[in-house]
Write a structure and sequence with these properties.
Elements lengths: L27 H5 L1 H6 L10 H9 L11 H19 L2
Protein backbone atom coordinates (compact mmCIF):
# COMPACT_ATOMS: atom_id res chain seq x y z
CA UNK A 1 0.00 0.00 0.00
CA UNK A 2 1.35 3.44 -0.85
CA UNK A 3 1.82 6.28 1.60
CA UNK A 4 -1.37 8.38 1.96
CA UNK A 5 -1.27 12.16 1.57
CA UNK A 6 -3.17 12.56 4.84
CA UNK A 7 -2.80 10.31 7.88
CA UNK A 8 -6.01 8.29 8.36
CA UNK A 9 -5.27 8.20 12.11
CA UNK A 10 -4.77 11.88 12.98
CA UNK A 11 -5.35 13.81 9.72
CA UNK A 12 -1.84 15.30 9.51
CA UNK A 13 -0.10 15.81 6.17
CA UNK A 14 2.27 12.95 5.40
CA UNK A 15 5.32 13.60 3.18
CA UNK A 16 5.66 11.46 0.04
CA UNK A 17 7.39 8.09 0.61
CA UNK A 18 7.26 8.52 4.40
CA UNK A 19 7.30 5.29 6.39
CA UNK A 20 5.27 6.73 9.27
CA UNK A 21 3.18 9.77 10.12
CA UNK A 22 5.37 12.56 11.52
CA UNK A 23 2.62 13.58 13.98
CA UNK A 24 1.21 10.36 15.49
CA UNK A 25 3.64 7.71 14.26
CA UNK A 26 1.01 5.62 12.46
CA UNK A 27 2.39 3.39 9.75
CA UNK A 28 1.14 0.61 7.50
CA UNK A 29 0.90 -1.81 10.43
CA UNK A 30 -0.92 0.55 12.80
CA UNK A 31 -3.05 2.78 10.66
CA UNK A 32 -2.48 2.75 6.91
CA UNK A 33 -3.22 -0.82 6.01
CA UNK A 34 -6.85 -1.72 5.29
CA UNK A 35 -6.97 -4.14 8.24
CA UNK A 36 -5.60 -1.60 10.72
CA UNK A 37 -7.76 1.20 9.31
CA UNK A 38 -11.00 -0.80 9.55
CA UNK A 39 -10.19 -2.41 12.88
CA UNK A 40 -10.77 0.82 14.78
CA UNK A 41 -14.21 1.41 13.25
CA UNK A 42 -16.03 -1.23 15.33
CA UNK A 43 -17.66 -2.74 12.24
CA UNK A 44 -19.71 -5.95 12.53
CA UNK A 45 -17.97 -9.22 11.73
CA UNK A 46 -18.29 -10.94 8.36
CA UNK A 47 -20.67 -13.57 9.75
CA UNK A 48 -22.89 -10.96 11.48
CA UNK A 49 -26.52 -12.13 11.69
CA UNK A 50 -28.78 -9.06 11.64
CA UNK A 51 -31.98 -10.99 12.46
CA UNK A 52 -30.35 -12.56 15.52
CA UNK A 53 -29.07 -9.14 16.63
CA UNK A 54 -32.54 -7.56 16.34
CA UNK A 55 -34.10 -10.46 18.24
CA UNK A 56 -31.49 -10.14 21.00
CA UNK A 57 -31.82 -6.34 21.27
CA UNK A 58 -35.56 -5.90 20.87
CA UNK A 59 -37.00 -9.25 21.94
CA UNK A 60 -39.13 -11.58 19.90
CA UNK A 61 -41.22 -10.19 17.09
CA UNK A 62 -44.66 -9.18 18.30
CA UNK A 63 -47.72 -10.14 16.31
CA UNK A 64 -49.27 -7.15 14.59
CA UNK A 65 -52.98 -7.65 13.99
CA UNK A 66 -54.03 -7.55 10.37
CA UNK A 67 -56.64 -5.08 9.20
CA UNK A 68 -58.27 -2.24 11.05
CA UNK A 69 -59.85 -2.95 14.42
CA UNK A 70 -63.67 -2.95 14.36
CA UNK A 71 -63.84 -0.01 16.80
CA UNK A 72 -62.09 2.23 14.29
CA UNK A 73 -64.50 1.13 11.55
CA UNK A 74 -67.42 2.00 13.84
CA UNK A 75 -65.91 5.39 14.67
CA UNK A 76 -65.39 6.14 10.96
CA UNK A 77 -68.99 5.19 10.10
CA UNK A 78 -70.39 7.29 12.96
CA UNK A 79 -68.26 10.27 11.98
CA UNK A 80 -69.30 9.93 8.34
CA UNK A 81 -72.96 9.69 9.45
CA UNK A 82 -72.55 12.84 11.53
CA UNK A 83 -71.13 14.78 8.58
CA UNK A 84 -73.87 13.57 6.23
CA UNK A 85 -76.64 14.37 8.73
CA UNK A 86 -75.14 17.82 9.30
CA UNK A 87 -75.26 18.63 5.59
CA UNK A 88 -78.72 17.09 5.02
CA UNK A 89 -80.52 18.62 8.04
CA UNK A 90 -78.84 21.99 8.01
Amino acid sequence: MSTPETCPNCGADVPPRARACPECGADEKTGWSEDAYASGLDLPEENFNYDEYVKKEFGPKKHIPEGIHWVWWLAAVLLLGAFISFWVFR
